[in-house]
Structure formats: structure tokens, C-alpha cells
Give the backbone structure.
Amino acid sequence: MDALTIHEAAQTTGWSPRMLRYIERVGLLDAARSDGGYRLYGAAELQRLRTLREVLQDFDVGLGEMAFAQRLRTDSELRASVDAWFEAQPQRPEDVPARDWLRFEQDKHERLLAAAAALT
């Protein structure tokens, strides 16, 4: 099998070995492995890396966004939650008077931030 090591693939494609590992970890590419467990990059993987770079440049998106797009394709629960968020319309709770809605939302955010800070 004709294949490049991760370092050879990095030199050929312009991606660093670290980025190649990240690309694989987030599910954007699946490199074959040698018997010793080393990543191997053949023509198909090099083509995927080239076209990935083209998509990133053509649409001004980052690897994180592509990884998220991959998750949307494979995680139906995440996809449903994102779809529901886009379709949802903000709605004031019935027990909160209109004049108090802003303060109500601010208080909720402050409690969420405090809880998150307590976890770190």
C-alpha cells in the first residue's frame, strides 16, 4: 500500500501533524493505521484534506465549524435540539409581567453564570 506517514502528509498538505490528529479526532477524516498503529495517508486521504481546505477557504469557515457540521449529520439528538432552537420563538413566562421580563432573564443568566463559576 502506498501511503505517507503523518509527518510526510503534513509536509505534503500544509497541515501540521497536530492538526491532522485533530481532523481525525473530530471525525472529518479516518486515516488507515499500520500494523504498528501509525497513521497512514494515501491518495484518498490527501484528496479529502485538499478538498477540506478548499471548503474552509471557499466558505470562510473553520475546522471547529466543520466538526460541528459533522456532529449535526451524525447526532440526531443534537440536530433536533438545534432545529428546535432555530424554530423557537421567545416567549415571556405567563407569571412574569411584561415590565419585569428583562430583569427575570438577567437574573436567570446571572444564576447560570454563578453555577458555572462554582464548577470551575
The chain has six helices and two strands. The first strand starts at residue 32 and ends at 33. Residues 6-84 form a domain with the Multidrug-efflux Transporter Regulator; Chain: A; Domain 2 fold (CATH 1.10.1660.10). Helices lie at 6-13, 17-25, 43-59, 63-74, 76-87, 101-119.
